[in-house]
Amino acid sequence: MRTFAQLIYNLSGSTKTNDKLDALSTYFAHADEKDKVWVIALFSGRRPRRTVSGTQLAVWCTELVNLPIWLFQECYHTVGDLSETIALLIPEKKGPHSSPPVGGEGRKGAALHYYVEKFQQLEKAPEAEKKQFILQSWQELSSRERFVFNKLLSGTFRVGVSQKLMVNALARTVQLEPNIIAHRISGNWDPATTSFEQLLSEQSAQTDHSKPYPFYLAYALEGALQELGDPADWQAEWKWDGIRGQVIKRNDQLFVWSRGEDLITEKFPEFEILRSKLPNGVVIDGEILPYKDGQVLNFNVLQTRIGRKNVTKKHLQEAPAGLFAYDLLELNGEDIRSMALSERRAALEKLIISLQLSWLQLSPIVTFSNWDELTTIREQSRSINSEGIMLKRKSSAYLVGRRRGDWWKWKIDPLTIDAVMVYAQKGAGRRSNLYTDYTFAVRDGDKLVPFTKAYSGLTDKEFAQVDSFVKRNSLEKFGPVRTVKPELVFEIAFEGIAASNRHKSGVALRFPRISRWRTDKPPEEINTLEDLKRMLELYGK
């Protein structure tokens, strides 16, 4: 655990890509083989499920250090992170540290894999058994190790490392190309039973019929369209707002993967017919969208069934799903990603047309003759529940990860509304001592109606200025939340709006964030609830 905790410390202590790459490369070159597998799993989103609740951890910590719960809560509100609060409150064990030095993992409990696999074993164990193991571990580990241990234990482990960076670090220590590594570490594998050698072997890639390909991602278009050259070299499509996914048919089995590498086959029983319709050895890349009567619906419709353990007949009727296919990655069991997009598209069109399924659509190509014409067409995006335009070079191969040059996303401008801040809460991590999480309200006659929260979009300097305002102008305190004087006005940007019975305002925003601080506008001039409802009528289809 000490080696892994040091890795996390090194990664979080720098914002430089090369520093992180060096830290990961060093770790993969020297770490325990089983630990390396777990690091690959953790950094690619395969986190262990939560073993105990945050409340249990808080109570056990207060008992261990003999602290009243109210004082623990005050500490938590100041630190802003439960795992860090516990790590700081428990005193260091006196005497030599119980964990052996790096390279000398003599005690089995010192290894990362021991702890995460123990968490799995304890998932359904009696509370007393969980408590005993956790209290013992807290007292054995250093503060830094305890912090990482708590993050893993509570299911809140996050690290600022992209999968691409991890793959590049692995490529430094094994004799494989990054794109091959990216493919082999994808799919449905268990880090508790898979060895490092097995994971990266060619045989595992061949025997795992469910294994998806790494997704090719686009960069946001920053320059002028004219810089892309001849419009005839480019294929334009609508940028759909749904769930990016791959549908795989191999060995008479059907698999549906999301871009986050979640196996979501059972979430979309509509697709089961593809098990018999699709030929073996086919992988389709596309967007899963709410789709009914030939129209793409607002993504909010699909959210009603995402995350549900069981999808009922009612869900299928109220939130029907369709697949808009826009690329073909495998055909007849052959990886065709190196073929030109124009060739892959031709094969995809032939395949989709042959299936004749109303909910399985080709993502339509947007025809245009010049860049000015495409600019005009793009303005229609929101009316069809699209986020803008995708531009793909017709000669492009299907690459791995986010690459510049061949695929670009050209999104429409977000919707905006001016609102006043009414509540503030401290952030987490490096912002745990600053009020950076805000709730905003619009006017409804003489009242202020809260309608959304946002915690991004300001500079560090602006966050510090708002924090100072909150501390000087707090009216009430509700746990970690402060009611503040409604004086600061902000422009809130968002991608979509939908009706919501769960919110007092009656609306829910998609991806809200702070666009700018309106120091030029008094709170009397903010938008109204009527303005929000009008936007709901126009854009909340």
From TrEMBL:
Pfam families recorded: DNA_ligase_A_C, DNA_ligase_A_M, DNA_ligase_A_N
The protein's Enzyme Commission number: 6.5.1.1
Catalytic activity: ATP + (deoxyribonucleotide)n-3'-hydroxyl + 5'-phospho-(deoxyribonucleotide)m = (deoxyribonucleotide)n+m + AMP + diphosphate
Gene3D superfamilies: DNA ligase, ATP-dependent, N-terminal domain, DNA ligase/mRNA capping enzyme, Nucleic acid-binding proteins
Database matches in InterPro entries: ATP-dep_DNA_ligase, ATP_dep_DNA_lig_pp_1105_fam, DNA_ligase_ATP-dep_C, DNA_ligase_ATP-dep_cent, DNA_ligase_ATP-dep_CS, DNA_ligase_ATP-dep_N, DNA_ligase_N_sf, NA-bd_OB-fold
An annotated Gene Ontology molecular function: ATP binding
Keywords assigned by UniProt, alphabetized: ATP-binding, Cell cycle, Cell division, DNA damage, DNA recombination, DNA repair, DNA replication, Ligase, Magnesium, Metal-binding, Nucleotide-binding
Keyword Magnesium: yes
Location of the ATP-dependent DNA ligase family profile domain: 314-444
A single GO BP: DNA repair
Coiled-coil blocks: none
Protein known as: DNA ligase (ATP)
